[in-house]
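Hi,

Apologies if this is the wrong queue. I'm a grad student, and the batch job for Oxidoreductase molybdopterin binding domain-containing protein from Mycolicibacterium rutilum produced an output file that my downstream script rejects. I'm not sure whether the problem is my script or the file. Here is the sequence I used:
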Amino acid sequence: MSPTPRRLLRWRSPLRGAWLTSVLGAVLLVGMPVVILTGLLSYIAYGPQFGQAIPADVGWLKLPTFDWPADPAWLYRLTQGLHVGLGLVLVPVVLAKLWSVIPRLFQVPPARSIAQLVERVSLLMLVGGVLFEIVTGVLNIQYDYIFGFSFYTAHYFGAWVFIAGFVMHIAVKIPRMRAGLRSRSMREVLRTRTADTVAEPFEPDGLAAADPDPATISRRGALALVGGGAALVAVLTAGQTLGGWTRHAALLLPRGRTLGDGPNDFQVNRTAAAARITPDLTGDRWRLTLTGGSSPVVLDRAALTAMPQHTAHLPIACVEGWSTTETWTGVPLRDLARLAGVPDPASAFVQSVERRGAFNRATLQRNQVLHPDALLALRVNGADLSPDHGFPARIIVPALPGVHNTKWVGRIDFRAGG
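Support response: The file is valid. Your script probably expects a header line. Output copied below for reference.
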């Protein structure tokens, strides 16, 4: 049974039709693969081969892994910034696309053939998946750990539901999208005023209204509205990367705005208080233990500061999308590896004095340990690290996800190959 005009009376906008839906779909067809690819790259950057990516066990959804590059230093900043930033910018386009196809979501009966059943299943996975990813992603950016489940696990598996629906939907809809794009000229649409805007011809299985209302906005106006919404979202997120006074405009990335004083005034996810770091853990009794050689090497902060220091201007980027570039000074990790008796380590296992937390430890790859700018940082921007930024010592490695730049380091185990 086809949807009758009576059922479509509630959806009377004259803008709905194959052309507008196809234009919005074309934008998503270009943008969404970038969001998907950068999201999967973020998972690989976390080092699933070391069991430190979340979720650790993904079954047959396991991705091919490789050593995440340490050059260029801004690599993770770029990939994760694109994932979060572009994902947020596309939200107005996603909502507009859902508005444009809403009559089809309530079609009765939902399927009258195998092809339509595939289309409906793909639509359910596509819509459900993208809404779940958007809602949980935005909430995770805004608030700390508000879910009663692991955000990372849910986001990973939710992404695969969306990816499957996205691929199926493209396979079914690409011919219709091409036809829809060819049905009108973009130049003609951009020249058409509201008063001259007319509805597309009604088809029982189409999107156009059976009895359309008069236009209250032109198609070019609708595109401008969606584009303006995307531009506004971009403005409200870009400040976390641009820095300076624009950081205060980053309303959609509140943890990317400001924290600290003077040289330590830059972003942080977990404060020392939240991590339960007390002065007795990081004060005069603090020691760094290096293992991996014939016997442990124990150093206090004075011994570390007496070693040759290296300074590097490096970004640090978080999975939530914020990033910052600061000037770090400390002891190169490769010097510490030699001191520990492992001059050519295959990896390094770093532990924080923080007793709890999903990221109080990290395994670093060989290329990350031996990179000349990979540091056990003691100072930032010419000043000692603040407690919130990891005093007395923290890891800073080029292109490494922020949470693996372990703070409040207490032990490093350099592991030889073999």
